[in-house]
Amino acid sequence: MSLGLTTALRGWLHRRVRRAWQRRGLLAILLLPLHFAHRAWRGVRALGYRLGLARPVKLPVPVVVVGNLTVGGTGKTPLVIEIVRALRARGWSPGIVSGGYGGRSQRPVLVDPASDAAQCGDEALLIRHVTGCPVAVGRDRIAAARLLLATHGACNVLIADDGLQHRRLGRDLEIVLLDATGVGNGLLLPAGPLRDPPARLRQVDAVVLHGIVPPVRIYSPFFRMHTSIIDATCLASPARQMTLAQMAHEQQAGELRLLAICAIGNPQRFFSQLREQGLRFDAIALPDHDRIEASMTAPGRYQRVLMTEKDAVKCHRDARLGHDERIWVVPLHTQLDASLFDFLAARLGKERDGSKTA
């Protein structure tokens, strides 16, 4: 089986499973025993922490965990980026700790602008590229955090990207993100999309609702988040920029074949946003974190190729993709309730004051 066919099959299976997780159909019923086993394991683990049999590791700076109950694609990366920007504007010096999903590194590493996404993960590299803040990745979040703090002594707050399920990592605040998929069919992996049961929402400090979210019972302060796409930048020549409305007008005025390709958790959100801008295109949806190959962009067939920022950071080092003038990067613009940042500042201020008096 060819690489292209294998990738297409994996993408198709990925989309089918995600759709199946939105209802309690035959697949969910067959996998119910694994749901109950997962729930029992989660319950025993949580009980161990409540009884003090296991203790989270307390780091010398406040830790803000940003996570979700479900797997993939809710919008954690743009949320982390906006939180980092807001904290810097309020005088904090944040650092980011990530699991480095999609990367091959087995040990904690610091991410720099020249890092390879294949080693450190595409999301971590994007956060480093956009914010300029120190980022460390590692499957062992504690070791990654200690590496970052030892290297960047000015860092006085850590943002743990996708750290909700890593209970060993001590935290001062937990923020959970919910999107249009809500909690799916309400079942734990692999019967459903959940990594934690919905009751976990009782324990978090804040919930961010990304877009229109199905009814879910929320027990904490909640805040709204909206993302949109407006413009695009040429990957090979960043000085070349245009709005998507201009691109749609150009497409209407003449023959302009477009390809939209992405390897993100929720590709349909990206494609829908492009269509809302009036664009017509062929679409390729790869599994989250997958590498985009030059052959997938069909040179000679498409005049332009559109991709997300998360995908673009994987292409800079590619000899062909990095110099392909057809590739245009579509950044995500994020709007968040300003009250979220006031909430964070107030809570972190208490942590800072408490550490001074301790």
Task: Describe the protein's architecture and organization.
This protein is an alpha/beta fold and 358 residues long. The chain folds into 2 domains: 49-227 and 335-357, P-loop containing nucleotide triphosphate hydrolases (Rossmann fold, 3-Layer(aba) Sandwich); 230-331. Helices cover 35% and strands 19% of the residues. It is built from 11 helices and 15 strands. The strands form 2 sheets. It has a 9-stranded mixed β-sheet with strand order 3-4-2-5-1-6-7-8-15, sandwiched between helices. Strands 10-9-14-13-11-12 form a 6-stranded mixed β-sheet. The longest helix has 20 residues, at 338-357. It is globular and about 65 Å long.
